[in-house]
Amino acid sequence: MSHQAQPTPRPAEAVEHVTPQLDFDGTTPYEDYVHADVLTHLQHLLSDDPGEMVFLVTTQVMELWFTCLVHEWETASRALRADDVPTAIAALKRSVRELEALNASWRPLAQLTPAQFNSYRGALGEGSGFQSAMYRRVEFLLGEKSASMLVPHRGAPRAHRELEKALHEPSLYDEVLRLLARRGYAIPDEVLGRDVAQRHEPSPAVEAAWADIYAGDGPEDLVRLGEVLTDVAELVWRWRNDHLVATRRAMGAKPGTGGSAGVAWLEKRAQTYVFPELWTARSYV
Ligand code: HEM
């Protein structure tokens, strides 16, 4: 763990005898910072199946990555609002590495057989990732807004409050498009003044703006912004598709624990493109 005061290096010959500190008055400074004792005792298993642990831990790990992504994209949104493109790009680049780690965490669940999944599926009852409030904030920041997604969280005041706030705030992509307008691109009023609680609908004018930026005469910082947003979009699409394939392997065409049609419903969700004009503009460059 790094501390503000930088320690003075010891002479090389003395170094190997220096052992870590063992005595602390209360809990360790590590515990005070990481809360590892809380974090490693949140695994309340509901079945006797030994495979349930990795299912629960993977889900919890993904929740933590969702939390990190929300933090980065809120940082990027604030920076864009202040016309600070370098800070926004730095946060988005961090989020790209985090998305890679998030996607890598599918590995332990990617090859579940239906029999393995069945061993604890019953214990989940109607529980489903569909009810993840943090995933919903991820989607809201990407522009995938929907008031009905607040309904499952009525019984959880904090999650509901945070989601309601996120619903009515401009998404990361709204902030990007507002920045493009301030930088002289012809983003129409109906895009800039849209009801931000609704899903972002693809706009031909936005597509034209990205095509201009990518055509080579656009400012270099906006090209870099477009590319890091495309990285984000691609990795979110990969997360959705890895989830879809893992689900198809684990349960075929059975209905989901959350009550949806399962794979058929996820397939439809995985077809939507994040930041759609960043993809379609490529045909016109
Ligand atoms: C291999 C194990 C998994 C299976 C079989 C599975 C299955 C499903 C299904 C069928 C749905 C559709 C809703 C429903 O009816 O339940 C769904 C949604 C969802 N799952 Fe999973 N899931 C798995 C693992 C995970 C994990 C580890 C996470 C991490 C948090 C997760 C997060 C989500 C999210 C966020 C949604 C909502 C997606 C959306 O709204 O577009 N799932 N899952």
TrEMBL record:
Comment on bound cofactor: Binds 1 heme group per subunit.
For this protein, what is the EC number?
A: 1.13.11.11
A Pfam match: Trp_dioxygenase
Recorded metabolic or biological pathway in which this protein acts: Amino-acid degradation; L-tryptophan degradation via kynurenine pathway; L-kynurenine from L-tryptophan: step 1/2
InterPro entries, A to Z: Trp/Indoleamine_2_3_dOase-like, Trp_2_3_dOase
- Reaction(s) catalysed by this chain's protein: L-tryptophan + O2 = N-formyl-L-kynurenine
The Swiss-Prot or TrEMBL record lists the needed cofactor(s) as: heme
**Residue sites binding heme per the record:** H243
Checking Gene3D superfamilies in the record gives: 1.20.58.480
Q: What does this protein do?
A: Heme-dependent dioxygenase that catalyzes the oxidative cleavage of the L-tryptophan (L-Trp) pyrrole ring and converts L-tryptophan to N-formyl-L-kynurenine. Catalyzes the oxidative cleavage of the indole moiety.
Q: Assembly and interactions?
A: Homotetramer.
Name-wise, this protein is Tryptophan 2,3-dioxygenase
Q: Which organism is it from?
A: Streptomyces thermoviolaceus subsp. thermoviolaceus
Question: Where is the organism placed in the taxonomic lineage, from the top?
Answer: Bacteria, Bacillati, Actinomycetota, Actinomycetes, Kitasatosporales
Q: Which gene encodes it?
A: kynA
